[in-house]
Design a protein that fits this description.
The protein is α+β, with helices and mostly antiparallel strands. It is about 20% helix and about 40% strand. It has four helices and 14 strands. It has helices at about 1-15, 115-130, 155-160, 180-185; strands spanning about 20-25, 35-40, 40-45, 50, 55-60, 65-70, 70-75, 110-115, 135-140, 145-150, 170, 175, 195-200, 205-214. The strands form three sheets. Strands 8, 9, 10, 11, 12, 13 and 14 form a seven-stranded mixed β-sheet that branches. Strands 4-5-6-7 form a four-stranded antiparallel β-sheet, covered by helices on one side. The chain has a three-stranded antiparallel β-sheet with strand order 1-2-3. Strand 11 and strand 12 (about 175) form a beta hairpin. The protein is globular. It starts with a helix and ends with a strand.
Length: about 210
């Protein structure tokens, strides 16, 4: 009985809308961060940080654990569809594109990045990206069909990957993008991908951006 009452009090102490929208796994515990949200506010936290009335005790690839007055609350990352369309063969020497994907933007050719460098930069740049990136949902018939990047931090991982202010991101590796949380939450599930393929609407025309991870 006492345990049930204690657990109920702990759950009551945790905000009902508290959620984890993304996790960035770093080389060390200190570089591993999570993005928590509640009440319209967002916090980037690591193990030991306090947020929304609790203390972060663990951050993993699938979620975050917090301590609320001695009781453990585990937040799981939202599920993202794992069944992505199979890529189709590209022209010799060119990257593979998803079925129905638009052509690449000739001014933004495919590029290559080192996976470990991407992970390091994400750990370093997530606070700046969250603070300096502005997005707006794009609606069609009342449904979100993409997010427009209205502002981007110069020299960040996002701009180095080929994104520009004004781009409307509609898909990444076949997953429809309906918000910043989806963008961030998608990364842990793409860390083993050999390529990232984004479909964006740029200057009114859909184009593909391709980044190879080595």
């Amino acid at each position: 009985m006492l345990l049930s009452v204690t657990l109920a009090l702990a759950l009551a102490a945790a905000p009902k809308d508290l959620a984890v929208s993304g996790v960035v796994i770093g080389k060390t515990r200190e570089r591993t961060t999570a993005i928590l949200s509640s009440g319209g506010k967002t916090r980037v936290v690591s193990v030991g940080d306090s947020a929304f009335g609790g203390r972060v005790t663990a951050v993993g690839a699938d979620g975050v654990a917090l301590d609320f007055d001695g009781e453990r609350v585990v937040l799981r990352l939202p599920s993202v569809a794992q069944s992505l369309p199979r890529p189709v063969a590209a022209a010799p020497g060119g990257p593979a594109l998803l079925p129905g994907a638009p052509p690449e933007d000739p001014q933004t050719p495919a590029r290559s990045m080192q996976r470990v460098e991407v992970q390091r930069r994400l750990g370093d740049e997530i606070p700046r990206i969250l603070a300096e990136t502005a997005v707006a949902p794009v609606l069609e018939d009342g449904r979100v069909v993409g997010v427009q990047l209205t502002r981007l931090p110069d020299g960040s991982l996002l701009t180095d990957a080929g994104l520009r202010a004004g781009d409307v991101i509609t898909r990444i590796n076949g997953t429809e993008i309906d918000g910043m949380a989806t963008l961030i939450g998608l990364w842990p599930r793409l860390q083993n991908a050999s390529e990232l393929r984004a479909v964006v609407v740029r200057n009114g025309q859909p184009v593909s951006l391709v980044v190879s991870l080595k």
